[in-house]
Design brief:
- The complex is a heterodimer of chains A (about 725) and B (about 150).
- Chain A has about 725 residues and is an alpha+beta fold.
- Chain A has 15 helices and 25 strands.
- In chain A, helix 2 links the parallel strand 2 and strand 3.
- By secondary structure, chain B is α+β, with helices and mostly antiparallel strands.
- Chain B has 2 domains: about 70 residues, Beta-grasp domain (Ubiquitin-like (UB roll), Roll), CATH 3.10.20; about 70 residues, Orthogonal Bundle (DNA polymerase, domain 1), CATH 1.10.150.
- Helix content of chain B is about 35%, strand content about 15%.
- The chains are: A alpha+beta (about 725), B alpha+beta (about 150).
- Chains A and B meet through helix 4, helix 5 and helix 13 of A and helix 1, helix 3, helix 4, helix 5 and helix 6 of B.
């Protein structure tokens, strides 16, 4: 390029760059211009049904000043995509959006500098209209005419200047989702739909119970072209047609003999098991604060319980794998292509470079489900047929029975308030398995098949990320209210009879509910409205704003008591650092509880796509309603028994509440994420509404008639009232 | 050989009679819209229309479709000529992961074919066999109402 020295455009390499750009600093890693008038963006975050590709495209179109329709998204794949770790934690717009915004602003500046040098038109006199550069005398170039990849082979300068909020037009508008047309026309978009020449179909034969050991597989006839793959306790079948693979899996399962043993706790005594295992667990203080204040006049001691919860994706996990010599290529709906690559390599005891992971969409995942596990299964199955692609699909029973679950938990709270109701102290202890066993982070692979091989890897108990990264079991455990004395402790279990990992909200689901439940009790003792009592303890105006907005939407102050109906209000800032969500729930108590209406106010900072955020808040709230009213993983001493939709019911069309979402726009503020914020407050608001309707405060999830009655008796048996 | 009408076109496929209609649609017939969700008629992801009636394709032997009309979401419309329901789902942005949508769309099409003006309760009842995990239910209900209105206006 005459007159342009890429090195001159280079920023000082050690300066902190926004989001994932910091670890993936070259502009060419993030975008490319093409001569045909298109732009490719290359995020490392992946589409999980949350609409992220649309939001990222909007950000790019905005900063580049090109029409939205010109943007194409290159799906994440190793080794070329930026490594953005995992698409999780409601962080995609922060991590990837901030990076793309900065990278696109920088790319625009690079291109403008080149055209300015070439034409002599000063930079400040060039404007960009849909990718074409205009000087005072007309068009002087375009991204498309200058689509030279070498121009973007440069590190993003720290000083690139994205547009001010007031200049944004595309980012901040409800652009329709780019993935939805394929989905309503039934196009082949999911990894489930991938068809490659010569592809075989595979199924896994699961052990009949947890930790069962395969003793013998009796010989028997296989259809022509079919194969059996065995490595220790891992057993799979391959066949040319999907129905053959399915029938063969059932047939081979009948020929297997396994040694079984009891390995699971007694489900009926799960809280007691958690307490007992906590005695052998690892305890750490999450936060400690002692700032004195008035003496305590009222004290509450409460214990909350939640069972294991399943992700329960509508599509079972699926992957396609193909070996070529010493390398294997995998198509997967994993949330973290690089992390999956790392754990596949560890399991195969090979170099990561021998594994390529290409993302393709799956059904919504809601956290660490079976997506990574099935990819490893497909790799193992495909190893038997080098050169041939193998598609492996889990059954419904595998999806609901063998995916990681969100841990069962106990939260014990002891809190104190002064005579006038002001909170003085809050002690809580959380007991839980870890909330992450995601691949890529431990020297040992965490993929399901890794512990089943003839030369197996150990299964380590799941971990909790530190609070600074959002936390796991302790997520949202610190009340977001003004309390002078705090002591929050977390006991992580070091035994893991049921594999646990991340599910939307993680520990926030029980932590928000337990905090809001205790707040309601103190409000009642102080004779205060739950809304006023919360506002009294909040210093953050954005928190007060979402509560006031939700209350106004629901006409909270005008609510009238109706026999059999109740209303509740709850609030949390997700992760204590993310999006604010306040929820008012209205429930009807019949033979069981029905949630009829939800009013939700949210503040996610800058909003890239208002309709997309509303969709996430509503979806999270309906998900939360389902968890609140219906969901629990069932098991006996050997098996997960809730491995069908009959035994693991989720909320249906006939039961879904009406939902109204309003967002408080903060275009000047940083992104806060949107995907998980509404779920915890929804559960908490439903619990409060149950108390309002029935005078019974639930202390165990799900809020079934049995749990409402039983947990009430248990909860009030603890010390409470004046001291 | 099993012969039936698939989305308006006669097809004859060399498949075992006891293979499920779903596996045949997704395999030899080369379609993607009908999806595997459970294999036990509990989620509706595989729903297709058999002579216009919503039918679980996951458990139906393909032989049961012989001589009959099978309609999948691909048969409802195309991006160039969308079914009013497909246009309405896009207008309402009714979906997230979208895995459940093809089954829901064919059930909704059957509903509107028999009842051009369903109220919300009728829509919820017609879609109750379908599971959606993302929580797009209310948008989907609005989209069906929008399509019904468009249909009556047409």
């Amino acid at each position: 390029m005459s007159g342009f020295d890429p090195a001159a455009a280079q920023g000082s390499g050690t300066q902190r760059l926004p989001g994932s750009l910091n670890g993936n600093r070259r502009l060419s890693q993030w975008l490319a211009f093409h001569g045909d008038g298109r732009v490719t963006i290359k995020p490392g975050k992946v589409e999980l049904g949350q609409g992220i590709l649309t939001a990222l495209s909007q950000i790019a179109a905005e900063e580049l000043d090109v029409a939205f329709a010109r943007i194409r998204v290159q799906t994440a794949a190793t080794p070329d995509s930026p490594n953005e770790a995992v698409t999780s934690g409601s962080l995609s717009v922060q991590d990837s959006g901030s990076a793309l915004r900065h990278a696109c602003a920088a790319a625009r500046a690079v291109m403008l500098q080149v055209v300015s040098q070439r034409t002599g038109v000063p930079l400040e006199r060039i404007r960009v209209e849909d990718g074409t550069f205009h000087g005072p005398a007309g068009a002087i170039g375009s991204y498309w005419a200058m689509a030279d990849a070498a121009l973007l082979e440069t590190e993003a300068p720290a000083e690139a200047l994205p547009k001010p909020a007031s200049a944004r037009r595309v980012a901040g508008s409800s652009v329709p989702r780019i993935d939805l047309p394929d989905k309503v026309f039934g196009a082949a978009r999911y990894v489930h739909d991938l068809r490659l020449p010569g592809m075989l179909h595979a199924r896994v034969i699961r052990p009949p119970s947890r930790q069962a050991v395969l003793r013998v597989v009796e010989d028997g006839p296989l259809p022509a072209g079919a194969q059996l793959v065995q490595d220790g306790n891992f057993l799979a079948v391959l066949a040319a047609r999907e129905w053959e693979a399915e029938m063969l899996a059932a047939r081979v399962a009948r020929r297997c003999s396994w040694a079984e043993q009891d390995t699971l706790p007694d489900e009926a005594a799960l809280p007691a098991w958690l307490e007992d295992a906590a005695g052998r667990g690892e305890t750490a203080v999450v936060i400690e604060r002692a700032e004195g204040g008035p003496g305590a006049a009222r004290r509450l001691k409460r214990r909350f319980f939640r069972p294991y919860i399943a992700h329960a994706s509508i599509g079972p996990s699926c992957a396609v794998a193909r070996w070529q010599g010493e390398t294997v290529e995998v198509w997967s709906h994993s949330q973290g292509p690089y992390n999956l690559r790392a754990d596949i390599a560890k399991t195969l005891r090979c170099a990561p470079e021998q594994v390529v992971v290409r993302h393709m969409e799956g059904a919504g995942c809601y956290g660490h489900n079976g997506a990574d596990d099935v990819a490893m299964d497909a790799v193992l199955a495909a190893r038997a047929v080098p050169g041939r692609p193998v598609r492996l699909l889990w059954s419904r029973a595998e999806e609901l029975g063998w995916s990681p679950f969100s841990s069962a938990m106990l939260v014990e709270v002891e809190a104190e308030a002064a005579e006038d109701g002001t909170l003085v102290g809050w002690r809580s202890r959380i007991i839980s398995n870890g909330h992450s066993s995601r691949p890529g982070r431990d020297p040992n692979p965490t993929l399901l098949a890794a512990c089943m091989l003839a030369d197996p890897f150990p299964v380590k108990p799941s971990i909790n990320p530190p609070l600074a990264s959002g936390g796991g079991a302790q997520r949202n455990a610190v009340p977001a209210y003004r309390i002078p004395n705090l002591h929050i402790a977390l006991t992580r279990l070091l035994e893991m009879p049921i594999r646990t990992s991340a599910l939307r909200g993680l520990g926030a689901l029980i932590n928000v509910w337990s905090i809001e439940s205790v707040m309601d009790e103190f409000a009642a003792m102080a004779g205060a409205d739950p809304l006023d009592y919360r506002l009294r303890h909040l210093d953050d105006p954005r928190a007060a704003d979402v509560l006031a907005r939700a209350a106004a939407m629901a006409r909270w102050r005008e609510r009238a008591k109706r026999e059999g109906w109740g209303m509740g209000i709850a609030y949390a800032p997700y992760k204590n650092s993310g999006a604010y969500a306040a929820v008012v729930a209205e429930i009807e108590a019949r033979d069981r509880i029905f949630c009829r209406r939800l009013w939700i106010a949210g503040d996610v900072g800058e909003v890239v796509n208002p309709d997309g955020v509303a969709n996430q808040f509503e979806g999270g709230a309906i998900h939360g309603t389902s968890v609140a009213l219906l969901e629990q993983v069932r098991f006996d001493r050997r098996h997960i028994t809730s491995d069908s939709w009959e035994t693991y019911p989720i909320l249906r069309f006939s039961e879904v509440p009406a939902v109204q979402v309003e967002l408080i726009a903060r275009p000047e503020m940083p992104f806060l994420g949107a995907g998980e914020a509404s779920m915890g407050p929804t559960i908490a608001a439903i619990a409060a509404a149950i108390q309002d309707a029935l005078g019974l405060r639930p202390f165990a999830l799900p809020f079934t008639p049995d749990n409402i009655a039983a947990a009430m008796a248990e909860g009030t048996a603890e010390a409470s009232g004046s001291c | 050989m099993v012969a039936f009408t698939l989305n308006g076109t006669a097809v004859a496929l060399d498949v075992p009679e006891d293979a499920s209609l779903l596996h045949v649609l997704r395999g030899p017939a080369g379609l993607s819209g009908a999806r595997f969700g459970c294999g036990t008629e509990q989620c509706g992801a595989c729903m297709v229309l058999l002579d216009g009636v919503p039918t679980y394709a996951c458990t139906l032997p393909v032989s049961a479709a012989a001589g009959r009309k099978v309609t999948t979401v691909e048969g409802l419309g195309t991006p160039e000529a969308p079914h009013p329901l497909q246009a309405a789902f896009l207008a309402e942005q009714a979906g997230q992961c979208g895995y459940c949508l093809p089954g829901i769309l064919v059930s909704a099409a059957a509903l509107l074919a028999g009842n051009p003006d369903p109220d919300e309760a009728a829509i919820r009842a017609a879609l109750d066999p379908h599971l959606c995990r993302c929580g797009s239910h209310n948008r989907i209900i609005r989209a069906v109402r929008r399509a019904a209105q468009a249909g009556r206006a047409a």
